[in-house]
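From the pipeline queue, job 12 of 40. The input is one protein chain; the requested action is below.

Action: predict structure.
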Amino acid sequence: MSHPFNISSELFSRLIPFHLVVTTEGRITHGGQILKNVCSERIVGARFDEFFELVRQPERNFEDVKKNDREIFVIECRKSGIQMKGCFYAMEPDQAFLFCGAPVVNRLEDLSRFGITFSDLPSHDQTIDYLFLLQISQNALRESKKMAQELKQRDEEEKKGLAKFPSESPYPILRISKDGVVLYSNRVGQECLAHWNSAVGQPLQGPLRGALVTAAKAHQIQHLEVPCKNGIFSVDLVPIEGADYINAYGRDITQQKQAEKELREAEHRFRSLLETAPDAMVIVNREGQIVLVNARTEQVFGYERAELLGKNLGMLLPARFGAQHEKHVAGFFEHTVQRAMGAGRELYGLKKDGTEIPLEISLSPLETPEGVLLVTSTIRDISARKQLERQYFQVQKMDAMGQLAGGIAHDFNNMLAIIVMYTESLMEASAEPAVQKNTQGIRDVTERAAALTRQLLVFSKRQIANPIVIDLNQLVEGLTKMMRRLVGEDILIAENLKPHLESVRIDPSQMEQVILNLVVNARDAMPSGGRLGIETKNIRIHRLPEDNEDLKPGTYVALVVSDTGTGIPASLKSRIFEPFFTTKERGSGLGLATVFGIVKLAGGSISVDSEVGKGTVFTIYLPAISDAPTVLTSVETTIERLDGHETILVAEDEPQIRKMMVRLLSRHGYTVLEAGNGSEALDIMSERKEGVDLVVTDVVMPLVSGPEFVSKIKENQKSRFGVVFLSGYSGGHLEKSGLVTEGAFFLAKPFSSKTLLIKVREALETSAKPG
């Protein structure tokens, strides 16, 4: 551009950075460097009113400029809001107007908020001086050769890189020729050049070189971030119009970058914690709209993240809880009191598929750096906990019923023992057929009652078990004939007994009871016939199954009993092992409860899979044992006589049972001492100088129990003696005493006279053996 002042365009732009040249049609042909920068776009060629407007006299427009040039005007940059005060001067040869002005600010440094650096510009006073000169001496300035010469000389100095940048600037300032030679550097810039292995007067090295070439070719400002002075600097490479050099302005952003890094790391940690949290995390605003969720939220509710963001939190709750929860959240915003974690409200959530799940929700306030208050909802799916609570209550109920059943069975067995012994006395006293027939009927009913109490004891886990290592295949094969008689001809029994089966430790008679109970249940479920499957196999469990928490990792022997019967409704599956619960018209409700008790007593587990109309599958898991199976022999075949002459102490708190035992043993030649409880038994033994050969005692007695007084007798009596424990139920006391492992024998009530005599003889002969 050729100005009327005979000054080069570049120098004029440097001297008067706030100037414009506008044609009479209102188009901008030239502009000062600062004006072009603050407009953020190329303004050359654009209309004046696109970027600027006249202010303070709103009724004026650009037409007024044509009529009132040289009058003071104020214009405002639409892009940045900067206001400039100056004059328009007519340029008749060019049919244009020249605007020269200065910013309307108290201090020129105030413009730094617009990102403008004035370290290399004339001061505010100098700018006003230029405006004053232009205003009063336009013609004189135009014709002044001296001024033109001075300005030309300064222009040449600029081109040669001799312009003086403020050396005291804390930021690097460089001037670089377009061919890459460093022309000038302030002190801080020299430190950066040394870091880049470069210097003034040498070709530029380092990270700026590539951007320098781009800036020179494209004639556009290039911005980049580079290392300098052990930090990070933001550098702008600014091509100068009409010059063959490029200015570089740097700014230390090390702390800013460190803050950004720390912010990113903090955000990453927050995201990591959020995404790996075991609970669902939902953040909502005051309007209840979801603004952030984590991965667990998607898993709990079945929604994709995009389906939740921006939606109301109420979509995750059943309709009956929506209004209540909105009120709760609104109140939380009012008070913003943080709730303690773990003290949340329990309610139900609504999944995408429409199912409801129990939840625990805790609310916490969250304030953003911008001051926006949000609420974080920590949502825990407590389905598993509720299931465990139900199971715990079920166990408590079963345990309470078991205690009741065990107590009843114990007392009932005592009465049955009396009935059995009196019945045997009647049979011995009279040989009349009618008496024998009636008493045998009483015995049969008594045995059935005893079998029922045994089932109660198994359920209550109070039955004395005699577990041994057995081969389950041999036991099943031994029951095959009996099973065929039980199920009838219209049911096919399909056995699949895997060879090389591991051994298990369980009471054989109890295991037989388990199998027969399951077989009878299967038969009753197939009134029109069907298929009964019995399978054994080894199973290795590597991890805890989700559907059976009783199974720990290890090797098990599985017994699978299946049928093709009517099946069990889903609503009843959780109750089938409850005592006295039955779906049969004539059933005691103790069959499966007995099975459950025996399996648990053996350290195993049982599961059921059933579907109405498709049958039922029971699977029993027993821990595998590496020991060889034991071969059993009948006690009765080893005992040759029932009489004896030894001294026996009988301790029993039930008088009728005690009297009958004393009479029976005395009749068979034994010397019998009797005590009504453990305390009396201790008194008797303390008064006797000689010991006894055998102690027959009830386990549970008032004052001193059977195991307790036997233990005390063993401490005082030096000679060996045998022990037979009697009980109407198991022997929690017997097992805790440790006497089971010391050769003591056990006899469950009710028992026959012959069974008592055999057990007494066996105990005496065992205790008499040396060792």
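Job complete. The chain has 23 helices and 28 strands.
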